[in-house]
């Protein structure tokens, strides 16, 4: 099983500033890495897939980068609605054995 | 746009079988364009993949749950379902149904609203 490790667990950032979230895979997952945003009581929302491709309707301030085992989600200028939980997710294996990171909580500084 | 609506009992007794249904609109379970899946999230914890199924009926299971899980399609109703047997308190979670395009370069994009299932006597 590919173990996904996110850091930090909690990130405090002021509105308008940049946030950088990290995700590390225990083995290479190529570019088969996605980022989800989740708010309380809601389902996960796909932000980025293929490590760097924004999903439909996702604002340009969200950008993903990385490949192999190291990945980053950057939110360039935080809006109030961006304070939420973020999960990375690998979908490299076939047959599938999808796994997720434990999440990074983005909080207002 | 695919819309998913999960449903099922919110309370299941220990050792019994949890059964959930996901009703799909905006996409056909008979289409080769989609995979369908179930995930769960223990309250306050992370996400766990449970199982996936393709229109052909080919199934994929998380090895940690495989012995207790069945995923199936009902194309006549455009629904897919999850059965998890011999449940314990550790199976208490919000269960999500979701879909992904056939494209191997992408992952689950459309998610249902989630169904909280509590295992308790």
Features:
heterodimer; A: 109 residues; mainly beta; seven-stranded mixed β-sheet; four-stranded antiparallel β-sheet; 11 strands; B: 121 residues
Fold blueprint:
The complex is a heterodimer of chains A (109) and B (121).
Chain A: E1 4-7, E2 10-13, E3 19-25, E4 33-38, E5 45-49, E6 53-54, E7 62-67, E8 70-75, E9 85-90, E10 99-100, E11 104-108
Parallel strand pairs in A: 2-11
Antiparallel strand pairs in A: 1-3, 3-8, 4-5, 4-9, 5-6, 7-8, 9-10, 9-11
Chain B: E1 3-7, E2 11-12, E3 18-25, E4 34-41, E5 47-54, E6 59-61, E7 69-74, E8 79-84, E9 93-101, E10 110-111, E11 115-119
Structural account:
The complex is a heterodimer of chains A (109) and B (121). Helix content of chain A is 0%, strand content 49%. Chain A is mainly beta and 109 residues long. In chain A, strands 2, 4, 5, 6, 9, 10 and 11 form a seven-stranded mixed sheet that branches. In chain A, strands 1-3-8-7 form a four-stranded antiparallel sheet, with no helix packed on it. Chain A is globular. Chain A starts with a strand and ends with a strand. The mean pLDDT of chain A is 96. In chain B, strands 2, 4, 5, 6, 9, 10 and 11 form a seven-stranded mixed sheet that branches. A four-stranded antiparallel sheet of chain B has the order 1-3-8-7, with no helix packed on it. Chain B has strands at 3-7, 11-12, 18-25, 34-41, 47-54, 59-61, 69-74, 79-84, 93-101, 110-111, 115-119. Chain B contains no helices and eleven strands. The N and C termini of chain B lie far apart (39 Å). Classes of the chains: A mainly beta (109), B mainly beta (121). The interface between A and B is medium-sized, with 25 and 20 residues.
């Amino acid at each position: 099983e590919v173990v996904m490790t996110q850091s930090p667990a909690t990130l405090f950032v002021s509105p308008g500033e940049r946030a950088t979230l990290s995700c590390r895979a225990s083995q290479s997952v190529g570019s088969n890495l996605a980022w989800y945003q989740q708010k309380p009581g809601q389902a996960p929302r796909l932000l980025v897939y293929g490590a760097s491709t924004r999903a439909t309707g996702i604002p340009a301030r969200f950008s993903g980068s990385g490949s192999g085992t190291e990945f980053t989600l950057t939110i360039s200028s935080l809006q109030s609605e961006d304070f939420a939980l973020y999960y990375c997710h690998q979908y490299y294996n076939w047959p599938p054995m999808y796994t997720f990171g434990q999440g990074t909580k983005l909080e207002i500084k | 746009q695919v819309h998913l609506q999960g449903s099922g009992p919110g309370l299941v007794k220990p050792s019994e079988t949890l059964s959930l249904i996901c009703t799909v609109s905006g996409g056909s379970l008979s289409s080769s364009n989609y995979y369908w899946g179930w995930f769960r999230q223990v309250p306050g914890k992370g996400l766990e993949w449970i199982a996936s199924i393709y229109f052909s009926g080919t199934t994929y299971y998380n090895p940690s749950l495989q012995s207790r899980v069945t995923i199936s399609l009902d194309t006549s109703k455009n629904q897919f379902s999850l059965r998890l047997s011999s449940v314990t308190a550790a199976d208490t979670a919000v269960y999500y149904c979701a879909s992904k395009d056939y494209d191997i370069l992408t992952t689950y994009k459309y998610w249902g609203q989630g169904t909280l299932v509590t295992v308790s006597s």
